[in-house]
Design goal:
binds calcium ion; binds fe (iii) ion; 3 domains; 26% strand; 19% helix
Length: 523
């Protein structure tokens, strides 16, 4: 067994430090260092928490005193970091502490899983490295699995193109009294559109690990995003732009990017994503694979599943072989192929088993994009955008059948990606209006990224009566307020492009009554 495995097996910081002392300094990258003193704040990228469970929560930071330099300006050696978590901001009540190693192979990021906590409790946390103290973050544990729960408040958000607007919505999110932020993808954008640029990325599209790390640094250096992370635990899944626009499994949309080349890119992108997100160390990617789909539970009130619609999906239909990329189409034989999948067969099976076993009041399915039909009636026939669920009709039918088998009206699908607020009815077969409504859908608009024109969106609404609400002109996020009786939906919105001092308003409100599939207008 090499030393690194030994350290991993022994686990805890104190044991690791003892081993460090035992083996002595100077053994390559396993020499443990104290943070070198400097005038630069090692916590420039902030703090975050995530994955709240009844007895644990995940604390994240990344040491980067000079975040624009390779390894954040730190030596190629592990550095000890201490965390503290308590029930009060003065860190006096119920104080817990631990020491972990920020390892250079993970860009000195820290993913500290704090276990043995009381359920349904709010906490404050911070880190220390050398003489530096981090900002204080707030987090919480989930209620016990069998606990009756009165209320759960979630912010649903996605699509934060740094270049296309300020993160003013994150200011409001940070100030809200909520339990968690649910982020459903396009956390970074790898690409640019010069037409809508109000502030630049640090460089052109990343092509390697160093590039993706720099892209994540650009986002985390935004103080409003850091505030939203410090204020609430986050639960995350991803969409395409964390790697490359419209990718599908191992396929790129670029002709000159073979699947081998693309998987190398995906490896770099997933690794940088892991390094910068408050996710469990057990999610650390292995090569090009990273499992992000996960089950969360909020007592007896709600089950929440995060789903991965990118890593395991079939390529978009009627593309050249092995090529990804979405386009608008009116017909394509491959649409009827039942072997095509959005989640991959293993994840589909997992979700079906999870849903069948669920006993909670609400069942929330969080995934990347809009499930309800979004095509438009045109003189040439009905259009479909092949990157969305409209391009995966057989997989969509299977998903809806899995949901319909429960037939309790308590499944609510949550998505992002399309840069519009959408509230919709979901039918047993979304392409057949004679089939019953079996679930509800809420899709959040983007936090910053530009949407479709209102002319196109109006045609989309007219073409799809199950879209109870669809607006592309405003940026925003969604506040979900769950009680055992109802699930409130408040669509918050502001103009595009979003300025730093945006005026944010409520675009519309809907409600899903328990046991009654399909949202209704609320007031
Ligand atoms: Fe997006
Ligand atoms: Ca997307």
């Amino acid at each position: 067994m090499d030393r690194r495995h030994l350290l991993a097996r022994v686990g805890g910081g104190a044991a690791a430090l003892a081993l460090g002392a035992l083996f002595g300094p100077g053994l390559g990258s396993d020499r443990i260092e104290r943070l070198p003193p400097s005038g630069d704040d090692p916590f420039s990228l902030g703090v975050a928490s995530g994955m709240p469970a009844p007895d644990s929560v995940l604390l994240w930071t990344r040491l980067a005193p000079r975040p624009r330099e390779p390894l954040g300006g730190l030596p190629d050696a592990p550095i000890e970091v201490h965390w503290e978590l308590a029930e009060d901001e003065a860190f006096a009540t119920g104080l817990r502490r631990g020491t972990v190693l920020a390892r250079p192979e993970h860009a000195h990021s820290v993913h500290a899983e704090v276990a043995g906590l009381a359920p349904d409790r709010r906490f404050f946390y911070r880190f220390r490295a050398g003489d530096a103290l981090s900002p204080v973050g707030r987090t919480r544990t989930a209620p016990a699995a069998d606990a009756p729960v009165d209320r759960l408040r979630i912010v649903l958000a996605s699509c934060q193109h740094y270049e296309q607007g300020e993160f003013a919505l994150h200011r409001e999110i940070a100030d809200r009294d909520i339990d968690l932020v649910l982020f459903v993808g396009d956390y970074i954008y790898e690409s640019s559109n010069a037409r809508y640029r109000v502030r630049p990325h640090e460089a052109l599209a990343p092509t390697d690990l160093a590039g993706y790390r720099q892209r994540h640094v650009t986002y985390k250096l935004d103080p409003a995003l850091r505030a939203a992370h410090a204020a609430h635990p986050w639960v995350l899944t991803w969409d395409d732009h964390e790697v490359e626009n419209d990718y599908a499994g191992d396929a790129s949309r670029f002709e000159d990017r073979s699947s081998t080349d693309f998987l190398a890119l995906r490896t770099a992108a997933y690794k940088a994503y892991f390094e910068h997100m408050p996710v469990s160390p057990r999610m650390a990617p292995v090569g090009a694979a990273m499992r992000i789909h996960e089950h969360y539970r909020w007592g007896r009130l709600a089950d929440l599943w995060t789903l991965d619609g990118r890593q395991y999906r079939s390529t978009q239909p009627c593309n050249p072989p092995g090529r990804a990329g979405g386009r608008v189409m009116t017909s394509c034989d491959e649409l009827a192929d039942p072997a095509r999948t959005m989640f991959g067969l293993a994840q589909e099976r997992w979700l079906a088993e999870q849903l069948a076993a669920s006993r909670s009041g609400w069942r929330l399915l969080a995934q990347g994009t809009q499930i309800a039909q979004g095509g438009m009636e045109t003189p040439l026939g009905r259009s479909r955008f092949s990157d969305g669920w409209d391009g995966y009709p057989q997989a969509r039918r299977r998903l809806m059948q899995t949901i319909a088998r429960q037939a309790q009206g308590n499944v609510v699908c949550l998505g992002g990606d399309v840069h519009r607020h959408v509230v919709a009815r979901l039918r047993a077969d979304p392409e057949d209006e004679r089939t019953p409504v079996v679930a509800s859908e809420v899709v959040t608009s983007s936090l910053t990224t530009r949407g479709l024109s209102e002319t196109a969106t109006a045609l989309m609404r007219r073409s799809n009566p199950d879209l109870l609400h669809a607006r592309s002109d405003e940026r925003g996020y969604v506040l979900l307020d769950l009680t055992p009786q109802r699930l409130g939906i408040e669509l918050r919105a502001t103009d595009f492009p979003v300025p730093a001092e945006a005026r944010i308003r409520t675009q519309s409100r809907f409600v899903v009554e328990a046991g009654h599939a399909g949202p209704q207008r609320d007031g």
